[in-house]
Amino acid sequence: MKVFVLTVLVAVAAARPDKRTSEEVVPILRDDRVEFADGAYSFDVETGDGIRRSEAGQSQGDAGAVNMAGDYAFTFPDGQEFYLKFVADESGYKPESPFLPVAPAFPHPIPQFVLDQIAFAAKEDANRELDQARGDYRRGAPGQYSTTMKFIIFVALVASALARPDSPPSYSAPGQRSSDDVKDPVKILRDDRVQPEDGSYAFDIETEDGIVRSEAGQNENEAGVVVQAGQVSYTLPDGTLFELKFVADENGYQPQSDFLPVAPANPHPIPDFVKEQIERAERERQADLSNSQRATYN
């Protein structure tokens, strides 16, 4: 059965359009290897199709680590040469190559009107904490963000996403505004909030540009986990309604939306002759099992 499983893997690899024929044997141009009794080693290998690989390493004894350094290179089909060198030690694996991806600059500049709203919310929170220090607890429990601040932070995140030049259309919120629109604030049509003393809460917010956000939660369930559920919706620039619902509990964050990506189907169908080999191997395995059982019985 193991042999036929290996046959399946080889057959799937052989189905690739860029497979080599059996006559195309790649020669090894250089293969220098050194291994010492103390665990140190080095090797330098080069093949006829342009692959080069070299590495050296040594054990660190009492530290229990192995330090390694090396490089490798090969040529792309378009003639461009790939090169990478690396060092691996107690600080981890550190590769260097011009082909490694580089994180882009922070793509979420926050508009000034959002910064003003955040500053305003922070001022409100400071006043609320002052009221609490004086014994007025009607506006929420000490040490918690006010629901006003939570909503402003949510608006800031939406505005940051809008400002991204490469934002995909399926994730862009409506009502994109420039700095010229600061004098035209978005009206809040509904803002219902409930925050009992037991730590549970609920809010339901709607703005005139089509954003609807609702959420409810309780402090802890029987498993000692904060449980939350809610939904968000808005209209995309092309008129499509985006909706997302979620539950967050001891099983983690579980979103549901038609806009969430779906994993594609397996891109490697198994050829019929490979399936036949698997079936044949299973028949042989069953026959061997039957023969073994008969021998044991006799």
UniProtKB/TrEMBL annotation:
<keyword id="KW-0193">Cuticle</keyword>
<feature type="signal peptide">
    <location>
        <begin position="1"/>
        <end position="15"/>
    </location>
</feature>
<protein>
    <submittedName>
        <fullName>Uncharacterized protein LOC108683265</fullName>
    </submittedName>
</protein>
<dbReference type="GO" id="GO:0008010">
    <property type="term" value="F:structural constituent of chitin-based larval cuticle"/>
</dbReference>
<dbReference type="InterPro" id="IPR050468">
    <property type="entry name" value="Cuticle_Struct_Prot"/>
</dbReference>
<dbReference type="InterPro" id="IPR000618">
    <property type="entry name" value="Insect_cuticle"/>
</dbReference>
<dbReference type="GO" id="GO:0062129">
    <property type="term" value="C:chitin-based extracellular matrix"/>
</dbReference>
<dbReference type="Pfam" id="PF00379">
    <property type="entry name" value="Chitin_bind_4"/>
</dbReference>
<dbReference type="InterPro" id="IPR031311">
    <property type="entry name" value="CHIT_BIND_RR_consensus"/>
</dbReference>
<feature type="region of interest" description="Disordered">
    <location>
        <begin position="166"/>
        <end position="186"/>
    </location>
</feature>
<keyword id="KW-0732">Signal</keyword>
